[in-house]
Specification:
Elements lengths: L20 H7 L4 H6 L21 H6 L13 H13 L12 H14 L9 H7 L8 E5 L16 H6 L8 H8 L4 H7 L10 E5 L11 E5 L4 E5 L5 E6 L1 E2 L9 E10 L3 E3 L14 E3 L10 E5 L5 E3 L16 E2 L2 H10 L6 E4 L6 H5 L12 H15 L59 H6 L17
Parallel strand pairs: 3-13, 11-12
Antiparallel strand pairs: 1-2, 3-4, 4-5, 6-12, 7-10, 7-13, 8-9, 10-11
Helix pairs in contact: 4-5, 8-9
């Protein structure tokens, strides 16, 4: 049998659908009013090549960051942080929000371009910028006061040795910054960057990202593109709902091929190490149960697949998705995995690993569409977009407390050798071994709907696309 086992790349370099026609019609008018209202200079006023790296900036500068043309500046910038947050709000995840131009951000721009039917190059351009502005009506950042609850349940350190891990009561967060980073989709170091000199202790007031509420539309199909390292999920009507960056296997231990099915979901799963059935870690020659937690080997979520030993799961190192390798399983940030866990339907949602050379655009049958001229629909679309964004509930209004990590593993669960069927079986967590155990799937809180998509649905005819900017061919 094949097993997916975690491995970590030692490199230190930072970073690393075409839509179905209906989704194209839904999304392309997000920024049409802006296309009509303003013209963007054809060339950047400041070349990206001359940008300084890691220049300090504030949350206020993120809010005010403007696009003047060209690609995103190299290094860390307020503009890149703003674009990352807008992509995150659109359901096209950039991974961690850290302000750095890198491979994950580029892949998110490509995914967004596929979503709206633009040519895919992964570069910021006026069309992408204008379409993203529909997500900027709500402030990008918010003021947050650290609570005593934020300081509870922390652990001093997460040892690398599995025997030491097994002695712990939880694989919990190691700092307030790490806990809040996952809560607000940020790299923990970026929280400190935006709040220089502010102690991360209860009572401190800090600036953090203001992501939108989770998507709520159920997904019927998930496509996993190994080449671009993206996971895209569609509803039953062929509309893209979410698109995430992922770690997907490696050359030595590739992910499976073909189509499979989600069988079950486990929240905060524990993890069983069994050297007699898989690899040996260090000097550990006995089976061990590692307690659950966000810093566990599979993060805070396991989505079990009908392909034995494989699943989609979280990660303890979200900033390293494009640097790490896995032994065949699919790894997302914990917050993306948690969102996807709410969207899948066990026994119904299919997961397709695309063959080499086959892209999400190929299987969805969509790509950059011929440009159409604007018409009287523009005003209707602009009004619908503005109203929908205004009505969107943000995290700051109804911010949930971080998920409570169980401190005692539940009784081991059994899983048949084959998944699927009308009644999904409880999952085992197979990452790293063939005999993993997991907590029973937790009840998932109902999520708010997507008012933007709802308001915009039907506002434009099918296949209506973004027209070219003036002067473009």
């Amino acid at each position: 049998m094949e097993f997916c086992r975690e491995t970590h790349d030692a490199g230190e370099t930072r970073s690393p659908e075409t839509l179905m026609p209906r989704r194209l019609a839904l999304s392309t008018f997000f920024g049409l009013s802006l296309l009509a209202a303003s013209a963007i200079p054809a060339a950047a006023q400041t070349s990206a090549a001359t940008q300084d790296r890691d220049v300090p900036f504030t949350a206020e500068q993120m809010e005010l960051a403007a696009y003047d043309g060209g690609d995103l500046p190299r290094g860390r910038s307020a503009l890149t942080a703003k674009v990352q947050l807008l992509l995150d709000r659109s359901g096209t995840s950039p991974g961690v929000i850290d302000g750095y131009k890198g491979a994950m951000s580029e892949s998110a721009i490509r995914a967004f371009e596929r979503r709206v039917g633009l040519p895919e190059d992964g570069l910021m351009d006026p069309h992408v910028w204008n379409l993203l502005q529909s997500y900027s009506e709500i402030p990008l950042t918010q003021t947050y006061t650290i609570t005593q609850e934020d300081a509870e349940g922390l652990v001093d350190d997460i040892p690398s040795d599995f025997a030491e891990k097994a002695k712990m009561s939880t694989q919990g967060y190691t700092s307030i910054a790490e806990k809040l980073g996952e809560r607000f989709h940020m790299d923990e170091k970026f929280i400190s960057f935006l709040n220089p000199g502010v102690p991360m202790v209860p009572g401190s007031t800090i600036k953090v990202a203001n992501p939108a509420a989770n998507m709520s539309k159920k997904v019927a199909r998930i496509f996993i593109d190994k080449a671009t390292r993206r996971v895209a999920a569609y509803d039953e009507a062929g509309r893209m709902i979410v698109d995430y960056p992922a770690t997907i296997g490696s050359d030595a231990t590739p992910s499976p091929s073909g189509k499979h099915r989600v069988t079950s979901v486990a929240i905060n799963p524990n993890y069983t190490y069994n050297p007699s059935k898989n690899f040996k870690q260090g000097n550990n020659d006995k089976a061990l149960i590692i307690p659950p937690g966000p810093n566990g080997p599979v993060g805070s979520v396991w989505i079990d697949l009908s392909k034995p030993t494989y699943g989609i799961h979280g990660t303890p190192t979200p900033s390293q998705l494009f640097r790490n390798q896995s032994r065949g399983c699919v790894r997302l940030t914990n917050w993306d995995a948690q969102e996807l866990a709410r969207l899948v339907i066990p026994g119904v949602t299919t997961v397709e690993f695309l063959d080499p050379g086959v892209t999400i655009a190929d299987v969805t049958g969509a790509g950059a569409q011929p440009a159409a001229t604007r018409d009287a629909m523009l005003e209707t679309a602009s009004a619908a977009a503005a109203e929908a964004v205004t009505q969107t509930n943000t995290v700051s209004d109804t911010l949930p407390a971080p998920a409570t990590v169980t401190t005692k593993p539940a009784a081991p669960l059994s899983l048949p050798e084959t998944g699927g069927g009308a009644t999904p079986a409880p999952p085992k967590v197979y990452e790293n071994t063939s005999e993993e155990t997991a907590d029973a799937a937790a009840s998932l809180a109902p999520q708010r709907g997507d008012p933007l998509s709802h308001a915009l649905s039907g506002a434009l005819p099918d296949a209506f696309v973004v027209p070219p900017l003036e002067g473009e061919n």
